[in-house]
Specification:
The complex is a heterodimer of chains A (333) and B (325). Chain A has 333 residues and is an alpha/beta fold. Helices cover 40% and strands 27% of the residues of chain A. Classes of the chains: A alpha/beta (333), B alpha/beta (325).
Chain lengths: 333, 325
């Protein structure tokens, strides 16, 4: 047994269609220590779900190695099942069962003894704030409560690891905050290892470590703070009166590393804040373009994500790898 | 944007809601709500599930009648002039109501003919929309095999095929990646620059930050209505403390205990990656108390500082404030 909660080495997953072979996971390696909250992020169709399913043993791998708590994904998947909780993307709980019946159902699936059930179920209902709803049909719960019930059900067998695939899709901000606070409590109080796939960068900020997957490859694997620190330059934000012209001007300016659009604002990545701020203001003034409140902002995970993916796209275009690949893997997932 | 355009259309707000109320039996879904949206404005309409967000939009679209109060779109009363309202609005929901077995172009043509566009105008609109959505080269691709971002931009194109002056977007970006979301927002602002009024709902506050003005609805009531920067200044109860420590898990346990025993007035304590965030009421005086508490718990405090609240912090604070829901 190794010391990692989740481990993958040169993991490959190919899907064969009648026309061609699509590599959804491409020599991916990652090691997650116990008690980490690991976020897997990436563009649509990059391979997040495939990676999760291969690690869990729900999909067979093409080559490489993967394990959870030292158990091999393919050979020991029943051992993994005993120790891991899983929420699939767009999962559904039996809607015609009540909250309590759902808990009992999942307890049954995981062979939780009736003594254990008597202890665990009330604890989990209290933890998820579902006590007063225990006789409500799952189908009649709000979106946020359904997600919390799913989390409670995934914890019924006291797993050491949970793997959550976009668990908050379509949930409102209050419920989403509650859901993440529950995950935080599991980490603070029980040292649970949490693996979560998410398209939302504010959720990535709540992880201890984040992996960025691109066309099946892990291209970044670090703490959110280090990822943000690693993005070159500083970011200036402003809303120009003539968006298209300002965008073009900034793109051509010396000392500008990158320009991202942000609604009606521009995010201009520059090498030197004071020097380039004056330069941008001078150019905008000379062209008669009005702007408000040109100021430096902090890089968030969202800006970092876009910057990293864009650079990766440029690299792929330069070496001439077909770029429609992510589109194809997107269909398969 | 030219100022002439702005003032000319300012006479009558394209979206106007006056004392709007909707009761379902004893339940008040929307409770005396007032707001207006100006021409070319991008307005975020935000609230938890069940707060009355969608009910408001349905009344604006004339799909249900208000119990009392009025909703106007482009100057037409939504309850009594529904047909005129429909001719002037575009609507896109999170389900992207596209036909997957039609090509991208066929979908645009279908929606164009539903709106009764003459064929030469339709031909021109198809090429405009293909270009806007970045679908060049994919005109004849089956919609079902387009990826999320393209489908979403196509759905927007279909919703605005008839040149509406007001567009309602109901959670248009659910489940698409950050890059597609940024591209989509670029399109929203292109429309707004052309004078189109946009009302958008989203559950993601990092996205709501992109709106020029937002309204918060909670338990049927409007609890906030302003620009994002102003809301951050006025609507936050307490302040956010960001704490970097040697053992964040232990720090959370200590602070939660202090919260439960009312030793410190904490609204929220939570792990944020390697950091701890605490929302502290009556803030200033408690920073030192918290620091001391952590040090006494044998935790090394690397930094402890007040940070600006995110829109999500402000939203949660606003909707929690009224006892209800």
């Amino acid at each position: 047994m190794n010391q990692f909660a989740i481990s993958a080495t040169d993991l490959v997953k190919e899907f064969k269609t009648n026309k061609n072979v699509v590599t959804a996971v491409n020599r991916l390696s990652l090691q997650i220590a116990p008690s980490e909250t690991y976020g897997l992020i990436g563009p649509d169709g990059a391979g997040k779900t495939s990676t999760t399913r291969v690690i869990l043993g729900l999909l067979s791998r093409t080559s490489g190695e993967s394990s959870v708590l030292g158990f091999d994904s393919m050979n020991d998947m029943y051992e993994i099942r005993k120790r891991v909780g899983y929420i699939a993307q767009q999962f559904s709980l039996p809607p015609t069962l009540t909250v309590m019946e759902n808990m009992l159902f999942f307890a049954g699936i995981h062979s939780v003894s009736s003594e254990q059930q008597k202890k665990r179920i009330p604890e989990l209902l209290a933890f998820a704030g579902l006590n007063e709803f225990k006789n409500r049909l799952a189908g009649k719960l709000s979106g946020g409560m359904k997600k919390k019930l799913a989390l409670a059900c995934s914890l019924i067998h006291e797993p050491q690891v949970v793997m959550l695939d976009e668990p908050t899709l379509g949930v409102d901000p209050v419920s989403r905050r509650e859901f993440w606070n529950l995950l935080g409590n599991l980490r603070a109080e029980r040292g649970l290892t949490i693996f979560v796939c998410t398209p939302y960068m504010d959720e990535a900020e709540r992880c201890t470590r984040v992996g960025l997957i691109y066309e099946g490859k892990l291209i970044v694997d670090d703490s959110p703070a280090n990822i943000k620190r690693g993005i070159p330059g500083h970011v200036l934000e402003f809303a120009p009166s003539d968006f298209a012209v300002a965008l073009k001007l900034c793109n051509e300016m010396a000392g500008v590393l990158e320009v991202q659009t942000y609604g009606d604002k521009l995010h201009v990545f520059v090498d030197d804040v004071s020097k380039r701020k004056a330069q941008i203001e001078a150019v905008l003034d000379s062209k008669g373009i009005a702007y408000d409140n040109l100021r430096e902002i902090e890089v968030r995970m969202e800006e970092a994500f876009i910057s990293l993916i864009r650079r990766q796209n440029e690299r792929v275009e330069q070496i001439g790898v077909p770029t429609n690949k992510s589109e194809m893997t997107g269909e398969i997932q | 944007m030219s100022t002439e355009l702005f003032t000319a259309q300012n006479q009558e707000s394209p979206i106007l809601v006056q004392n709007l109320t909707k009761r379902f039996g004893v339940f008040t879904a929307v409770d005396h709500v007032n707001f207006s949206v100006q021409a070319g404005e991008v307005f975020g309409w935000l609230g938890p599930n069940g707060a009355g967000k969608t009910t408001t939009i349905r009344m604006l679209l004339g799909l249900i009648k208000p119990t009392s109060g009025n909703a106007f779109v482009s100057g037409f009363n939504s309850a009594t002039q529904t047909k005129s309202v429909h001719a002037h609005v575009g609507y896109m929901s999170q389900q992207f109501t596209l036909y997957n077995d039609l090509t991208a172009m066929q979908n645009i043509r279908f929606y164009g003919s539903v709106h009764g566009l003459p064929s030469d105008e339709l031909r021109q609109r198809i090429s405009e929309i293909i270009q806007m959505a970045g679908l060049e080269g994919r005109e004849n691709t089956l919609t079902g095999s387009l990826s999320g971002g393209w489908k979403q931009r196509l759905a927007l194109g279909c919703a605005i095929v008839h040149h509406p002056k007001v567009v309602f977007l109901d959670e248009p970006t659910a489940g698409v990646d950050p890059i597609s979301r940024r591209q989509f927002w670029e399109l929203i602002y292109q429309m707004a620059k052309d004078g189109v009024t946009v009302l958008v709902t989203t559950h993601y506050m990092e996205e709501a930050e992109l709106c020029q003005r937002v309204g918060f609805i909670s338990a049927g009531r409007l609890v906030g209505l302003d620009s994002v920067s102003e809301l951050k200044l006025t609507q936050m109860r307490g302040q956010v403390l960001e704490i970097n420590v040697s053992d964040p898990e232990k720090a959370v346990r200590i602070l939660k205990a202090a919260q439960l025993s009312h030793q410190v007035p904490l609204d929220e304590v939570a792990l944020y990656g390697a950091q701890v965030h605490a929302v502290v009421l009556e803030a200033q005086e408690y920073k030192d108390v918290i620091q001391k508490m952590l040090v006494e718990g044998n935790i090394q405090v690397n930094s402890i500082a007040w940070i600006a609240p995110t829109l999500e912090d402000v939203f949660i604070s606003s909707v929690k404030a009224p006892a209800g829901n």
